[in-house]
Amino acid sequence: MGPGGDGTYLPVLWDLTRDRAARARRRPAPPAGVLLVAGALLQGVGLPFDVTVHLRVSPAARARRTSPERAWELPAFDRYDDEVAPADLADAVVLADSPDRPALVLQGRFA
Predict the structure, then answer these.
(1) pTM of the predicted model, to two decimals?
(2) How confident is the model over 20-67, as pLDDT tens digits?
(3) Are residues 57 and 104 in the same domain?
(4) Do 70 and 101 belong to one domain?
(5) Coil, helix or strand for 22?
(6) Domains identified in the chain, total number
(7) What b/e sequence results for 46-73 when a residue is b if at least 16 CB atoms lie within 10 Å of its CB, and e otherwise?
(8) In whole angstroms, what is the distance from residue 91 CA to residue 36 CA?
(9) Which residues contact 26 (CB under 8 A, 6 or more apart)?
(10) What is the DSSP letter of 73?
(11) Distance CA 66, CA 68 (A)
(12) Residue 66: enclosing H or E segment and its boundaries?
């Protein structure tokens, strides 16, 4: 999808039901199309996104909103915040401690 790309994309990478790689075929993007990629821990790994938006949730809010069965994930998000600093890499940051009252912070070329 990016500069020099062939204008196609994979609509899904992982089959959550079967817990394996999806067997999806590439699809052509419409002219002037926009591809949104959602996922945790994606910044700082060299993916060439044109624009990035980071949904920032504080460690305290994450701990409050994470179920006990998924609490084992919390150290990974804390380490990601410390080592990658995704809010510093993003073009825009949404402060999402209170999902009903998000706040937008523009950075870099959008500030």
Answers:
(1) 0.77
(2) 988 899 999 998 888 888 888 999 888 888 888 999 999 999 999 999
(3) yes
(4) yes
(5) coil
(6) 2
(7) eeeeeebebbbbeeeebeeeeeeeeeee
(8) 14
(9) 8, 9, 10
(10) G
(11) 6
(12) none
